[in-house]
Design goal:
single chain, 6-stranded parallel sheet, 8 strands, binds flavin mononucleotide
Length: 186
């Protein structure tokens, strides 16, 4: 890997194939300067199903899941990221992360952030036994299984990882990091 400009550390944001708060997560990203977005294969499909376009701040870099080794994650080792946000996080991604599996772009950015001690915010989809969620054709009920809820709980024990359970808490956590970044340059 060539020389990297890390004068301005960036937000990393991984999106996964979750309809739950998908649009809202995309909206929140629009507030962030110096942003890299990591898109899981399922997230790329879900983007199309919800007819969403990523309208992101100028200079945002988008990394799609096209390599077996999740090549873009190498940047975590060069101090490129001050914060990782994994939102929304599917039950699939949460389960893999909790068991230390890193076999695609989203699970790799989570694992590498952990190994590089980069503070991480995770918005897990499955946080309650009964949820209202947005499907492509409108709102539906979903009943996360015990295993899904257990995995979300297990993730809370990870170092440097804040698991948020509502859009309000995600927004507050992201804004707190943004204020911290701005305070460094003022
Ligand atoms: C329209 C649509 C909405 C989905 N919403 C969710 C969801 O809210 N939560 C979830 O855990 N999985 C959801 N899924 C299933 C995931 O996309 C699927 O488990 C996928 O394998 C996850 O891959 P990823 O974790 O690598 O992104 C949805 C699938 C579709 C087609």
């Amino acid at each position: 890997m060539g020389k990297i400009d890390i004068e301005t550390p960036r937000f990393g944001w991984a999106i996964t194939g979750s309809g739950h708060f998908f649009k809202e997560s995309l909206e929140l990203m629009q507030k962030l300067p110096n942003l890299d977005v990591f898109v899981s294969k399922a997230a790329a499909e879900v983007l199309k199903m919800y007819r969403q376009e990523m309208k992101l701040p100028e200079g945002t870099r988008i990394f799609k899941d096209t390599t077996a080794s999740a090549a873009p994650v190498g940047n975590f080792y060069y101090g490129v990221y001050h914060t990782l946000i994994l939102a929304p996080a599917t039950s699939n991604t949460v389960a893999k992360c909790v068991y230390g599996i890193s076999d695609n772009l989203a699970t790799n950015v989570f694992a590498q952030a952990g190994k590089c001690r980069v503070p991480t915010i995770v918005f897990a989809c499955d946080t309650a036994p009964e949820l209202d969620t947005e499907a492509p054709k409108g709102m539906v009920k979903v009943y996360p299984r015990a295993i899904d809820l257990e995995n979300t709980e297990k993730m809370k024990a990870f170092s440097d990882t804040l698991v948020v359970e509502s859009l309000g808490d995600l927004t507050a956590a992201v804004e707190e990091r943004l204020a911290w970044v701005k305070s460094l340059s003022s």
